[in-house]
## 1
Amino acid sequence: MRNFAVYGSLNDFLVGGGRDVQKRYADPNTPEYAKYQRYMKLGITAVVGIKGEF
């Protein structure tokens, strides 16, 4: 083997993932639960790979 490498990457590992919240324009009297247009909870992403020249 001339060149061989193993690589990896973890995103948002320490905080447990992220979230994406988008609210729509609403009347001030609208309840809080009705203002959400989109709520996405994003988890931890991982990339693992092997690259080499054989």
## 2
Amino acid sequence: MLLTVYANDLLFMFIGWEGLGFSSWALIGHWYKDDDELSYVGRFGEKLILDKPAWTTPSYAAYRAIATIRFGDMPMLGAIAAIGILGGSLILTPVSGVSAINWSHVISTLGIGGTVALLLAFMFGPYTKSAQVPFNDWLLTAMTGPTSVSALLHSATMVAAGVYIFMRLTESLYAAGVITYPGVEIMYLVTVYVGLLTALLGALFAMMIDERKVILAGSTMSSLGFMMGVTALTPFIPQSPFATINIGQYVVPLAVLVAFSYLIVHALSKATLFLVSGHLIHVTHTRFNMGNLELGRRMKLAFYATLAAAISLGGVPPLAGYWIHAAMDEVATETISVVGYGAYILMLLASLAYVAFLARFTSLNFIKGEVPHVHEEHGKYPLMVAAYVITGTAALAALAIPFVLTPNIIIEAGKDPVVIAIGIVLWVIFVVALIRPRLVI
């Protein structure tokens, strides 16, 4: 993961990328003997259409993950080779006198069609790694490893790597002054709608599923779609003093900074929710939603951490998610004249569904769910509890991000009357879903 993040060379980045994929395959398939139903995904013993099993074993979930990702890695490797040959370099950002990729030469040599083909081939890697439609199915069954693995996988490593590399690519294209070239814009327009459609479908999946970790997998899919779609809006933002932000020697496009800020809040919140989910599975000995207010009283710290993560990530005011969603709304509004209203509508619908399933998850496990059969005392595992209390509190503290690390435009976006109205609607949906979680399906 560190090699993937730190590499400024596409080849070194790809080496880390492949190691990351292999490690994730091994972690997803940790319980490779498939001898414990509690490590499965789905309802063991039930059948689907055409007599297909309604469950997935750890070994098969790991296979699905690595097979899907390898499907995207091959065209990505070919694209990297082509970039190196035509661009004269694989360096994304010039440092210490080393020349970066000559994107202008790449694009002029290939033309519009060739540029679209090259960039889409490269993006097959991020599309599959970050579970974008139609490569999303593997993510929903990648829940078979230990819950600490799921927390790491979904908050900070494998699935977020695709979005991160797309952000790096965007910065490189922007710095080279080719982000608005026709072939580049076509690929970015495709990615806008791929990302935001993924955001909506992931949120809808999470609303209809009753398995704890799979709900959170749908949430991750949705969040990655937000990040991908917002980053892809970069070429379509009108040039203004707020279109870019200077951070040290780097010039960061606004859309990239907004998406990266969301990545930080998502990582803290999602790690919290997965760790709480693991504790709930351990206590109730079931992978499915189960828990009432009595369990909430017994597991006060777990209840607190879940609520903290849900309201931080859900976009309700005045927590960090609200300000970042406001900035996302501002970016989408600025680009309507180019990308149309479809992107804004998809983003809005996904946001409404997202806050609903977060409240539903909270309610069905701590307020209005089935009466659980508790097998362990809550205070028996202080280290387990401490982990999610720390990350949940950090998610609340992420409120500082819009005020410290990001430009004034994000704060101004949160003061817009329309955005405030949307925030109030999100609070209403959250409260209603807490009270009647089974109606929000």
## 3
Amino acid sequence: MLADGDSDPVLAHLKHLGLGNAPEDRVKVVYHPDFISPVNPLWGLDYEQFVRGCHLGVFPSCYEPWGYTPLECLAMGVPAITSDLAGFGRYAGDVFPDHDAWGLQILPRRGRRYHDAAGDLAERILTFCELDRAGRVALRNEVEAHSRVFEWSRLASAYHEAHDRALAARFAAG
């Protein structure tokens, strides 16, 4: 229960959409605006355990300078959907042209109307939901096979380089 749940805009929108998590509802929403940790009374799990317990990570960002959550899903072997408005989505689209085949979908949002992108996202989620257990396991195995490219030991040098370039540009500008 949120401390101020009556004024939370996300909960208000979920209610407006009729997503109330009633027993008969076919769609259930997990909304947790707090860090997931072992001391959190709702989950009592490490963040990594929580992510590994998910079937699919869905992050159709309108804006995200980078977007760690889809990357974290992939690093932990969980298929994910991101958008081309997230830095990570743009990076992955450029570097991994076969991303759809191994569990990373990049939702095109740039220059598209909201409802068009939302319809595309719904189709992608439905396609995932229609996979049988063997299909989900096979997809997860593909993500696992590609997860090493997202380990910190491989990405850290790019972060350090970006940091150094930003500092150099700042000091060059005066």
